[in-house]
Amino acid sequence: MGQLVAVTEKPSSTPGVVRFEINRTLSGSGHERFRSIIDAHGNSPSDELARRLFGTGQVAGVHVYANIITVDLEKGYDSAGLADLIRGLHTYWKPGVEPPTFDDLQPEEAPAAASGDSGGDGGDAALSEAAKLVPAHLLERGRAAREKWNAKQG
Description:
The radius of gyration is 27 Å and the shape is elongated. The two termini are 47 Å apart. 25% of the residues lie in helices and 18% in strands. The longest helix has 18 residues, at 136-153. It has helices at 45-55, 82-87, 102-105, 136-153, and strands spanning 7-11, 17-22, 31-34, 59-65, 68-73. It folds into two domains: 7-97, 2-Layer Sandwich (Ribosomal Protein S8, Chain: A, domain 1), CATH 3.30.1370; 124-153, no CATH class. The protein has a five-stranded antiparallel sheet. It is an alpha+beta fold. The relative contact order is 0.14.
């Protein structure tokens, strides 16, 4: 699942430097330079890509500007496999990985408040922690709407 990134590898006039052009912008209109994996400490797509590129052991530096990725290769390495790594940047589930089910993604529900008030009329004892954050007039409006709906239902 996810969408593959279209990657075009372009040679550079500088030995040991490879340029990749992709079909989406990673850094907006700003330059992002990564001299080591330590520089890739954020959560942006550029940071994630830099971490993955440095993880191959082939890369000495990465520069990202919009949809252009410039890679400085380590001495003695070539760009083999780097285009595939970039292509799979937005692929979330790969073959052999079981995607989460709908039930796995649902948040845990808080237990119901222990109270003799089963009608849910908005009494203070029946309020959950989340409901305590809602203004009282909105809780009252909701209670009135529930009563009106229940009356129409018979």
